[in-house]
Write a structure and sequence with these properties.
This protein is an alpha/beta fold. It has a single domain, classed as 4-Layer Sandwich (Metallo-beta-lactamase, Chain A). The protein contains 7 helices and 14 strands. The strands form 3 sheets. The chain has a 6-stranded mixed β-sheet with strand order 1-2-3-4-5-6, covered by helices on one side. Strand 2 and strand 3 form a beta hairpin. It binds zinc ion. Zinc ion binds next to loops.
């Protein structure tokens, strides 16, 4: 049984997530934008984190990764299609007037078709380009849970005006990979409240389901 805890971090209120396998107590961190609040949550829950992963390379999703890796002594999994964004983190920081974080090294790549394993739980990986070229999302089919990063939000979608972004690609990612999931799939978004696939497929004003 997968448990997902959201932890809003950074001035962008990015929802880092702490995933826990209820049976084994094993945990992982997804989108470690800032180490401090995530470490506090890990301590409060008393779980053991085995890895850090990321949906994409934007600064609010990865800036705390190097520090968190050191604190926890774990390895980092990252979609290589976003390596350009990861290496450009100092430039991203300067453009937002933020302190320049250390660029984390990733030991493992994340690709579509892989199974992301956590204790007794397995999540599918889908490549969903459009917000960034390498963006991935994670889907747990039995529990109907999706960790969507910056692809789909409640009543909104990820920005496509950054370098490497494309509205057409994002629309295709959402229609072909997300709206085809069961309507009651709970969506944890990179920003803002949780939503459900069915609600967005019916009423999202930016990307409608294909008829
Ligand atoms: Zn982003």
């Amino acid at each position: 049984m997968l448990e997902v805890h959201e932890i809003p971090v950074t001035p962008f209120q990015q929802n880092a997530t702490l995933w826990v396998c209820r049976e084994t107590g094993e945990a992982l961190v997804c989108d470690a934008g800032d180490a401090g609040p995530i470490l506090a949550k890990i301590e409060a829950l008393g779980v053991t984190v085995g890895k850090i992963i990321a949906t994409h390379g934007h600064i609010d999703h990865v800036a705390g990764t190097a520090e968190l890796k050191r604190a926890l002594g774990v390895e980092f999994w990252f979609p290589p299609g976003d390596d350009g964004w990861l290496q450009a983190m100092p430039k991203q920081a300067m453009s937002f007037g933020l302190p320049v974080p250390e660029i984390p090294v990733y030991e493992h790549e994340i690709h579509e078709g892989q199974a992301m394993e956590l204790g007794k739980v397995k999540l599918e990986v889908f490549h969903c380009p459009g917000h960034t070229p390498g963006h991935v999302v994670f889907h747990q089919p039995e529990q109907r849970v999706l960790i969507a990063g910056d692809i789909l939000f409640a009543g909104s979608i990820g920005r496509t005006d950054f370098p490497g972004g494309s509205f057409e690609e994002l629309e295709r990612s959402i229609q072909d990979k997300l709206y085809v999931l069961p309507g009651d799939t709970v969506v944890h978004c990179g920003h803002g409240p949780v939503t459900e696939i069915g609600r967005e497929a019916r009423s999202n004003p930016f990307v409608r389901a294909k008829v």
